[in-house]
Design goal:
The radius of gyration is 20 Å and the shape is globular. By secondary structure, it is an alpha/beta fold. Helices cover 34% and strands 19% of the residues. The chain binds 2-succinylbenzoate and magnesium ion (MG).
């Protein structure tokens, strides 16, 4: 694993370039269709973007927080406060990335806000070196696997129709959202129609340990994993629940750092990890998590947060690193948006793979007039 740790050391030693301006831009993109999970329904993607200008270059960081605290406690509003009052003032030309990370860790929690600064800074450093982000992370250009996350549907028939579309597109695996009362019948219907499809479920914490016997009935359907059945803040009870299940448990919401992941895996409550770089504070911590996972033989995949093309590209670059052994929640742009803020959008090739965007930094280009059309507010920090 010297590959990842060597690349990480090199990244930590990079210098922060002088930054002329930092702006926070709040955008709202209508979703093609509403996205429902057990705790929320979203009809738009609201994203807080950090734009850095430096010597004629423009770099971006997308905060993955939602406008509400229904998936995580962070929101676009809390992220604005933490970014403006605590994190962005820590940027100083000439300090290293490692020193910036050390300074930002003084802020407890707020990983999504911290990841926003880190993403923008690494995009800037990559652009100054005229390198794609994956190369800055020490990974070769390669195609990554695709996966789709299908929101809660009104009926098993509607769900099967959505899965049929995904299978036709050649997505490498399908994840379906479940909640109490929308689980066994929905999974059974999909499984009967697609006996061999790599299939998993995500409950976003809708169950309690008392539901262990009910959840064990999912074992009959050959799911690759059950994601976050219990509380967003639990690690221990998942380890107890796993003892009643054959299907591996995967954690999402509960994991905010390498230490959380190490504890959850050691206890037996996290056999597979959904790694969302925004949820763990960014790409550097993601690399530490990948290293720990490789040392302990834990399969990892990249989650998503319905990002615009900015965050979506970051997730794609991250997945060029070794250790992403399973398809992630990385889907085509057209599944979410009629028009994204970047060009080109993400598309699947004929075999369901996704290519890394070519340009320097995160690789895609923010289109000014598209950004203007979806901008709700713009605030210059300096
Ligand atoms: O739990 O993984 C989740 C989207 C928003 C918030 C939480 C989750 C999700 C998804 C969709 O499952 C992932 C994506 O398509 O980007
Ligand atoms: Mg999830």
């Amino acid at each position: 694993m010297t590959g990842i740790s060597g690349a990480l050391d090199a990244l930590l030693a990079e210098g922060i370039p002088p930054i002329d301006h930092a702006d926070l831009i709040l955008v709202r993109l209508p979703f093609v269709r509403p996205f429902a999970i057990s705790t929320a329904v979203w009809t738009t993607k609201d994203a807080l973007l950090l734009r850095l200008e430096s010597g004629g270059l423009t770099a971006w960081g997308e905060c993955v927080a939602d406008p509400d605290p229904f998936y995580a406690y962070e929101t676009t509003g809390t992220a604005r406060h933490i970014l403006k009052d605590f994190l962005v003032p820590l940027l100083e030309a000439g300090i290293t990335v490692g020193e910036l990370e050390r300074r930002m860790r003084h802020v407890r929690g707020h990983e999504m806000a911290r990841a926003t600064v880190e993403n923008a800074v690494l995009d800037l450093i990559a652009k100054r070196k005229n390198l794609p982000l994956h190369a800055l992370l020490g990974a070769p250009r390669k195609k990554i696997m695709s996966g789709i996350s299908i929101g809660l549907q009104d009926s098993p028939a509607a769900l099967v129709a959505a899965v049929e579309d995904a299978v036709a597109k050649k997505y490498h695996r399908v994840k379906m959202k479940i909640q109490k009362g929308k689980d066994l019948d929905y999974v059974r219907t999909v499984r009967e129609r697609f006996p061999d499809l790599p299939l998993m479920v995500d409950a976003n914490g809708d169950y309690r340990l008392d539901d262990a016997a009910h959840l064990a009935r999912l074992d009959a359907f050959g799911l690759t994993m059950i994601e976050q059945p219990l509380s967003y803040s639990d690690i221990y009870l998942h380890s107890i629940l796993q003892k009643s299940l054959k299907t591996p448990l995967c954690l999402d919401e509960s994991i905010h750092s390498r230490d959380d992941f190490a504890a959850a895996h050691a206890l037996g409550g996290c056999r597979i990890l959904n790694l969302k770089q925004g949820r763990v504070g960014g790409l550097l911590e993601s690399m530490r998590i990948l290293q720990h996972a490789a040392e302990h033989g834990v399969p990892v995949w990249s989650g998503g947060m319905d990002e615009t093309g900015i965050g979506r590209a970051v997730n794609i670059h991250l997945q060029t690193l070794d250790g992403f052994t399973l398809p992630g929640d990385t889907s085509e742009t057209s599944l979410y948006f009629h028009e994204d803020v970047v060009e080109p959008g993400v598309v699947l090739d004929g075999d369901g793979f996704i290519d890394v965007p070519e340009g320097p930094g995160f690789g895609a280009t923010v289109v000014g007039e598209r950004l203007a059309r979806v901008t709700l507010s713009e605030e210059r920090l300096f």
